[in-house]
Design goal:
The chain is of the alpha/beta class. It has eight helices and seven strands.
Length: 218
């Protein structure tokens, strides 16, 4: 993503959305091979740009244009969910978390991020993954994006991570309730007794959940 790493402060939410849309379009149009449908998985901060990147790429919208493939499911794992008309990530995160330090145009993970992100990994693994964290652009905190996918008929899943110290369960629940009511029958919810990065510590369980057909709420 252009908003992470060297030069991150020069990019913003629109760049992230465009990057995600480009990648999805290459898959559903078969640019590098056979075209296919996509399940879009959004984790943590990725729920903000990821949800906005859905616009025009869900399968129903694509079929109305005479195209075959598109996004067929949205899967959020301890992810930020913001309602339509959100004025930025600040709507869900009024204060910068203790595990990141603001340095003007970027936010830099500090030593508290090791435990916040990787709490259920062994110490050696925590060090390895912590060393891979990079500065991230701070502009999406206050960048508005008025479109949202919550009213689409596309199936949506939220996986609550019950031992998440980076995005606590109470925060996950608050954000979910704000968007869930828009189209309740398009959602299903699941939970995992895991820390923030369950795809590292509980990979097999995450894969099983992700590949199982969603049971939507009636």
């Amino acid at each position: 993503m252009p908003t992470i790493g060297v030069g991150a402060g020069h990019y913003g939410l629109a760049d992230e959305v465009a990057t995600i849309q480009k990648t999805i379009t290459q898959i559903i149009d078969g640019v590098d091979g056979a075209s296919q449908d996509v399940i879009l998985v959004c984790h943590s901060y990725g729920g903000w740009p990821g949800s906005r990147a859905v616009q025009g790429l869900d399968k129903v919208s694509r079929q109305s244009q005479g195209k075959q493939h598109g996004i067929i499911r949205l899967f959020f794992m301890s992810a930020f969910l913001l309602p339509e008309g959100a004025s930025g990530l600040v709507d869900a995160l009024p204060e910068i978390p203790a595990w990141t330090t603001n340095e003007g145009p970027v936010n830099v993970p500090n030593k508290l991020a090791k435990e916040a992100f990787f709490s259920d990994l062994p110490p050696a693994a925590q060090e390895i993954w912590f060393d891979r964290l990079r500065p991230q652009s701070s502009s999406p905190l206050t960048t508005p994006w008025h479109w949202a996918p919550w009213n689409l008929s596309i199936p949506k899943t939220y996986l609550f991570l019950k031992k998440d110290y980076a995005l606590p369960p109470a925060s996950q629940e608050t954000m979910f309730k704000k968007v869930h009511a828009v189209a309740e029958n398009t959602w299903n919810t699941l939970s995992l007794d895991s820390g923030h990065d369950a795809f590292l510590s509980r990979l097999e369980e995450v894969i099983k959940i992700l590949t199982s057909p969603p049971v939507l709420q009636g």
